[in-house]
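Allow me, if you will, to draw on your knowledge of protein folds for a short while. Thank you for your consideration; the sequence and its tokens are set out here:
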Amino acid sequence: MSKLSPSLLALVQSFFQSHLRAVRGASDHTVRAYRDALRLFFLFAAQHLRRPIAELHLDDIRSEVVLAFLDHIETARGNGPATRNCRLAAIRSFVAHLLRHDLTRAEQYRRILAIPAKRAQIRTPTYLEPEEARALIAQPDPSTSGGARDLALLLFLYNTGARVGEALALRRGDLYLGRPRQVRLHGKGGKDRSCPLWPETAQALRALMERDNSDIASVAEVFRNARGAPLTRDGVAYLITKYARLAAQTAPGLRRRRITPHALRHSCAVALLQAGVDLTVIRDYLGHVSVATTGRYLSSNMEMKRHVLEAFWNRAGIAKQPHRPWRPAASTLAFLASL
């Protein structure tokens, strides 16, 4: 992007540095996703228009180029509708920023903002049943430094339903392991929320921090690797995959699924629903903006659907009434035998 024309480059820089960071309070994950989407778009635009990327101008940010790019990522790159929509959302956010600073091309930008998202099938969230989650959490060896960290991490993710980014951003000062045991999570858009902690989770976190040097500041990250650096997303994904493979020996259902860090967040949500917790409470617990997002978990749990259907069946009065089977009298049998 450093080779873009000055006017376009200035607006790209202000979009990332001023708008996303300062105005929207976007997370590092969102910034990286938007960066990758716009990078792909600019590379495609330069190739599509047959000019060096250094010669791209604001006049080139047109709806025809955006539509061609969206078609390209589906056909040439093999991306699905969901990825297409994510790329489009990043471009539309950038174009809305252009519109605020460049009204002379308002109609050009309006056409891009009018491009609709493609309807995509919503995938059923992958989650663990409680017994599967227990099998996963039982795998780390807490007698080792790495095992103590991994046990605390798995318990924390399942207990709080935290996003992996929220867990990796967790600092010692965010934890209160006395009574009441709780943690302050820093969510999307700079929104904080507090979650209670199980005694087992608090104990595992306390044991983890006692293994570390006592002079580590309260601002230090809780989950770190063997070199003392903060764990990465890839590192957490590797650990969960490793333990899921081990847990599959006692929980065969894990063999058929790809268990990711986000699957523990889904598992927390489904477990709360199964416990009868209200959707609005779960929404606040997980840090969802809309209760509709939380409602996806309700539609994904087959066991809860069975309970609802059974209750509906009984309430409707359609269930068969118990009855005694007919048995012929002895005299009837004697009469038939005499024929």
